[in-house]
């Protein structure tokens, strides 16, 4: 009998299995915490969870498996927090005097306003999708057919769109050619043997698709001229010509905003995934498991330590309501903690005050026609520009459908601040004007939009926690320890900030800590 078989066949509780060493301590990555009946060891112990985002939902779900009695207090009328899918009827009014917006997308159209992609190595996220039965599909992140557009440069290649594949293959070609030439002149003889040099030149020939003379003269990797693809009969196709090296060097594409061409960043490497029908499939699946445990439309007003635990006051239907418990799991984003009346210790309050959050925004633009697919052959992926729109994301779902919603901007820092400060109508105008330089079809095909700025979004107040070495050292440790009977969870309590995996991992860590505290589980 394997351990798995034993665990599956026994009626012993999850907690006893933990205690007997039959289950590994919840690891940070891949996990198998499938419930074995209902645990009883946490029974009778009341836990109040602030926030029904992913961290709060996960904590409630896992604590529930162990028999704890959890109540989730959620300020919004929905769960998910920064996991938020924008679709017809979605409403929001932003902080700082924002106008009320209601999404008017057509049936079946949506975009993920917050979390929008799952790296294939975020095992904890994938494990929860598996456990909750949330079906996944490919999120196409890197698309060589998408565009780069450098606005305001002087070179011949500025102020015009360029296919990522053209830039990529030309730069690969020229740099390979230059290195191959240097090697041919035996300039690296001291470091490499003759055989090594030959092998390296072979690599460069392949890497840059150099000709037999080791020169880069363009390559069929760039594809064919418009309307000159290979065809039936006597139609071999006409290859495109490479851009010149000096033109490319003056193009402006070496600015940091154009990095991540292709999928260089670890978190953006193929394969990326997304739930079918929107990222909110994940919180919705949790909600089904937590029926009756979430109190919605209940902003937390006060968080107090008591002799035996915690006391929370939230607002419900205009009236304050008090609730007590033995423990609290506080998943509120730090910007929300700042203004909360509480007995939290000075170190926690300082963490809330001094750990900055990312300013970031998105706009969804609905178009009558999927011109990026029909005219440009772009199926998913991301175009990049130094304009304020920064990134344009093409949907990876409903390909070749009738209409489509693309993400007309995804920006950060000062770009997000500038755009987020605009009234909704002006954000739309800016997205259409700037995006229209890359896609002239915007003008005739646009229907409607819905934009958001996370730093202005009620109950979030920012995209994600932004640490540097100093804030990690100075403020982060306070969030890892319980403050009395109050535990902290959320992406801001991890080294996986800005990812759902952080929310999941933090919840697991907190569940472990509480369970250890009540003496039911010894951490190995
Ligand atoms: N996870 C977010 C995203 O995928 C934020 C992020 C962006 C994190 C880039 C790291 C790098 O967009």
Automatic annotation (TrEMBL):
It catalyses: L-tryptophan + O2 = indole-3-acetamide + CO2 + H2O. The keyword Ion transport does not apply. Pathway: Plant hormone metabolism; auxin biosynthesis. Residues 1-30 form the signal peptide. SUPFAM superfamilies: FAD-linked reductases, C-terminal domain (SSF54373), FAD/NAD(P)-binding domain (SSF51905). Residues 54-514 form the Amine oxidase domain. One of its GO terms (biological process) is amino acid catabolic process. Keywords: Auxin biosynthesis, Signal. Coiled coil: none annotated. GO terms for molecular function: L-amino-acid oxidase activity; tryptophan 2-monooxygenase activity. Its EC number is 1.13.12.3. It holds the Pfam family Amino_oxidase. The keyword Signal applies. Belongs to the tryptophan 2-monooxygenase family. This is Tryptophan 2-monooxygenase. It comes from Spirosoma terrae.
């Amino acid at each position: 009998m394997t351990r798995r078989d034993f665990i599956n066949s026994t009626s012993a509780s999850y907690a006893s299995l933990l205690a007997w060493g039959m289950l590994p301590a919840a690891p940070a990555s891949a996990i198998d915490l499938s419930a074995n009946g209902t645990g009883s060891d946490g029974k009778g112990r009341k836990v109040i969870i602030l926030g029904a985002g992913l961290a709060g939902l996960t904590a409630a779900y896992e604590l529930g498996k162990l028999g704890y009695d959890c109540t989730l207090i959620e300020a919004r009328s929905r769960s998910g927090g920064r996991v938020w899918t924008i679709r017809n009827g979605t409403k929001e009014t932003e902080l700082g005097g924002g106008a009320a917006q209601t999404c008017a997308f057509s049936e079946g159209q949506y975009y993920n306003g917050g979390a929008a992609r799952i790296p294939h190595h975020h095992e904890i996220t994938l494990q929860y999708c598996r456990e909750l039965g949330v079906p996944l599909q490919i999120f196409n992140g890197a698309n060589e057919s998408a565009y780069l557009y450098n606005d305001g440069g002087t070179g011949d290649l500025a102020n015009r769109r360029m296919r990522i594949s053209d830039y990529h293959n030309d730069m690969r070609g020229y740099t390979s050619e230059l290195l191959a030439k240097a090697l041919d002149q035996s300039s690296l003889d001291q470091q490499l043997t003759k055989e090594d040099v030959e092998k390296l030149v072979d690599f460069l020939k392949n890497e840059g698709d150099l000709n037999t003379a080791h020169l880069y003269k363009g390559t069929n990797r760039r594809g064919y001229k418009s309307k000159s693809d290979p065809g039936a009969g006597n139609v071999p196709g006409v290859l495109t010509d490479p851009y010149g090296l000096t033109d490319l060097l003056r193009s402006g594409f070496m600015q940091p905003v154009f990095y991540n061409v292709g999928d260089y960043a670890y978190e953006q490497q193929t394969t990326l995934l997304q739930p079918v029908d929107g990222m909110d499939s994940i919180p919705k699946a949790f909600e089904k498991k937590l029926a009756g445990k979430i109190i919605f439309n209940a902003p937390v007003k006060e968080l107090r330590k008591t002799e035996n635990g915690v006391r929370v006051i939230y607002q419900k239907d205009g009236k304050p309501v008090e609730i007590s418990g033995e423990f609290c799991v506080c998943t509120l984003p730090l910007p929300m903690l700042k203004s909360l009346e509480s007995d939290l210790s000075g170190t926690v309050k300082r963490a809330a005050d001094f750990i900055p959050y990312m300013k970031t925004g998105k706009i969804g633009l609905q178009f009558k026609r999927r011109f990026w697919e029909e005219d440009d052959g772009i199926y998913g992926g991301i175009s990049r520009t130094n304009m304020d729109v920064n990134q344009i994301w093409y949907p990876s779902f409903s390909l070749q459908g009738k209409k489509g919603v693309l993400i007309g901007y995804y920006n950060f820092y000062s770009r997000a601040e500038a755009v987020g400060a605009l009234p909704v109508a002006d954000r739309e105008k800016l997205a259409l004007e700037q995006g229209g330089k890359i896609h002239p079809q915007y003008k005739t095909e646009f229907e409607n939009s819905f934009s958001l700025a996370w730093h202005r979004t009620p109950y979030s107040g920012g995209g994600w926690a932004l640490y540097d070495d100093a804030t990690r050292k100075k403020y982060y440790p306070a969030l890892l320890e319980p403050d009395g009977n109050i535990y902290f969870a959320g992406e801001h309590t991890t080294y996986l900030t800005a990812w759902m995996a952080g929310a999941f991992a933090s919840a697991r860590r907190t569940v472990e800590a509480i369970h250890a505290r009540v003496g039911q589980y010894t951490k190995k």
